Amino acid sequence: MPIILGIDTSAKTASAAICAEGKIIAQTQLNTRLTHSQTALPMVQALLDCAMLTMEDIDCFAVSSGPGSFTGLRIGIAAVKAICFTSKKPCAGVSTLEALARNLTGIDGIVCAAMDARCRQVYTALFEISGNGTVFRRLSEDAAISVEELELQLKSVGKKITLVGDGAELCYQFMKEHISELVLAAPLMINQTGFGVCMAAQAAIEKGETVEAGELMPKYLRLPQAERERMAKLKEKQ
Asked: Is the pTM value of this prediction over 0.85?
């Protein structure tokens, strides 16, 4: 099995991990006042040093490519691109929402990944884990929708749903009176992790979906706020 180094800088918490055979070799998470541009590469080097590995030992470098913070995504992707341009190693850009759901691969059930997109909206997708965590299936595509729209979707599931992501608490507080099957993921699993990125990348490797550094791009689900505001003003003038 390949040795994978995964990075997530899509939200406030930055994380990186080195995994092999579905197990963590090393992992770190940071939620400090420092920016991801200050912490991403030092975090990666510290992981390698602690695991007594080098860049040459890593078979694939992976990063959450969206959705998420526009600046955060660009920082993580730029870091992986820089590493892969130098090392000539393959890379994998994975859905941040899929990576979040893969934090919970040890459970069976429905997982709703939800990231706070502000203005009462969330980035979200549904997944199903079964077979004692051995089968992982996507139920819906990544989307940016309102909390109210997500509530309508979840009401039709009819099963226990585990919420994960930095929008999980928002969704739980909004929906708990109307959907009794909702539960929050455990605190250590609720935010983005390098482990989740590695597990999503492992699935991508098995499908032959790795790319070269130049092909790695962020996947935004909506325009940046400044662009949305500009378009709104243009519509008002029309």
From this structure: yes
C-alpha to C-alpha distance for 137 and 140, rounded to whole angstroms: 9
Paired tokens of 128: 């199903």
Q: Output the six-digit token pair for 177.
A: 């009176």
37: left (phi over 0), alpha (psi -120 to 50) or beta: alpha
Of the pLDDT bands very low, low, confident and very high (cuts 50, 70, 90), residue 164 is very high
**Three-state helix/strand/coil letters over 150-200:** HHHHHHCCCCCEEEECCCHHHHHHHHCCCCCCEEECCCCCCCCCHHHHHHH
| pLDDT tens-digit map of 65-115 | 999 999 999 999 999 999 999 999 999 999 999 999 999 988 899 999 999
CA atoms within 13 A on the CB side of 138: 13
Give which of 2, 17, 46, 71 is closest to 196, Cα–Cα: 17
Please tell me the distance from the alpha carbon of residue 167 to that of residue 227, in angstroms, as a whole number.
23
